């Protein structure tokens, strides 16, 4: 069967830049799936995406569907023929409907009987007759939250469609998609090639567009931007901080990228760099330049979509555009500095946190109280943490944060320093928002950790305390993120804190506000449940996490040590047998209704294997207890791994449920002792093979 490269392109108005990569991948996947589901062979797929187009190029696409043999089963032989072997009406009706005679029907024999069978050959349809519908279906499956209409048509898509190209090899496939007829006309660069280009072969798509000043390949266009801004930064003796999201967005905004360098008045550098960076990146999609020490320079790199004969004009235009935004930041900063943070706290009383839990000021008061308590638990004076907690939300009512919400916390730090607050207070104000996202940095100072924990606890205990727990995808207060952030801080900063004590400390700060009597248990359960996704993200298997969760340790650092120990134990050659033995022991003990003795009576031991197991248990207890005293769970489990052979020998040769009651109960006590050794660390019976 013949094959050729297939090219499908949808030419549009400018597509949403943040959605472009997702739309491209979804279009390619959906179209390829349509072809494969309809038995049209395809080869390698190459996706193209630029501001004004989505395109899919597929190698080795067959010219038509593969022929198929369709088997149609008819009535069973005992129904198809009477006692004399003559066809019945059922057989004749079935064969007639298939255009054959009874004599021409095949037979299908199975272990359940024999049936009449008709094998019909279905000829494959040409690709040209099927493709328009496939493209239409693929486009209908794209993740488009708000489609739009244009002109007088009822056709809907994410942006108005101007061209549709469906080319198989050098053959144009006729048809209509989204109300636009297929043609070999491609949209060129809006300014460099407004007349567009004509595509003569699907294999020439990328080269044809490049001749029309369009780099259609997203990855290649992105790399050209990286090379361009890197060269510009080097020439300006600056450094561009990596920002993949910004790179992707800029790549989705241009078709022929050219990197240029511009500058702004150095007086703006008196403003903290964070709001300047925010306005350059978020408002203008510029790449700020810093020196090797992280200080902002008065230069920036931007990417234009035109190769100008007079780039100075473009540079000047961008400098004029950014100046008012930087001037706004400068004005806000100078104005905000005139009002101390402490004077802003009262205004937080007018900002609602949650109707039942009060204002942001109420929250700040609680954070201050709890942060002081946490700092004390960590062996420090609570004064710095209390002060930072009291001021930590004050910058929310500043002009700068009102205009640039992304700068909350960091501006509080700058304003605190301007007010003469202690460095520890200023740092903690910034750090209390950390971590802001998965993989983000953590607070470095003890006061910063204390305030961050107090803030997250306040949200968790408060929202659970009024019965508004996260359900499904609904989590308006970001409690899941707060919970994982809280656990990360305690674990990664190795803080000797217990969740139950922290929850109690936070609950006390609410006074009589909370209506949920079970809030402490609910929050603890929620926090313990967050360990699973946190460790799964680190590659820890679910059964290891479940083994530790079964023991419900409430000190996160202790939980982490147990998880690491069980993960290490799971790799030992003895682990599988001991996990199975523990499961067997758990099942045996679960069926025992009477209380089990605490001690094993050596006088009732008779079998060599049970005597040997007792001796091995005593040795393992001694070695593991020494490790446990030092918090070395890994060493303790390695010591217990030596029990594998004695345990296997016991189960191979000793009957636990002996007829003699005293002997049976003594062996049950022995098994309970064995299981108790492992349960000091985790329930390894839940480990999978």
Automatic annotation (TrEMBL):
Annotated keywords: Aminoacyl-tRNA synthetase, ATP-binding, Cytoplasm, Ligase, Nucleotide-binding, Protein biosynthesis
GO CC term (a single one): cytosol
Enzyme superclass (EC): ligase
Keyword Oxidoreductase recorded: no
Catalytic activity: tRNA(Gly) + glycine + ATP = glycyl-tRNA(Gly) + AMP + diphosphate
Keyword Lyase: no
EC number annotated for this UniProt entry: 6.1.1.14
DALR anticodon binding domain ranges (all copies): 580-676
PROSITE patterns: AA_TRNA_LIGASE_II_GLYAB
Location of the protein in the cell: Cytoplasm
Main localization of the protein described in the UniProt heading: cytoplasm
InterPro entries from the UniProt entry: DALR_anticod-bd (IPR008909), Gly-tRNA-synth_bsu (IPR015944), Gly-tRNA-synth_heterodimer (IPR006194)
SUPFAM superfamilies found in the cross-reference section: HD-domain/PDEase-like
GO terms, biological process: arginyl-tRNA aminoacylation; glycyl-tRNA aminoacylation
UniProt name for this protein: Glycine--tRNA ligase beta subunit
Organism phylogeny: Bacteria, Pseudomonadati, Pseudomonadota, Gammaproteobacteria, Alteromonadales
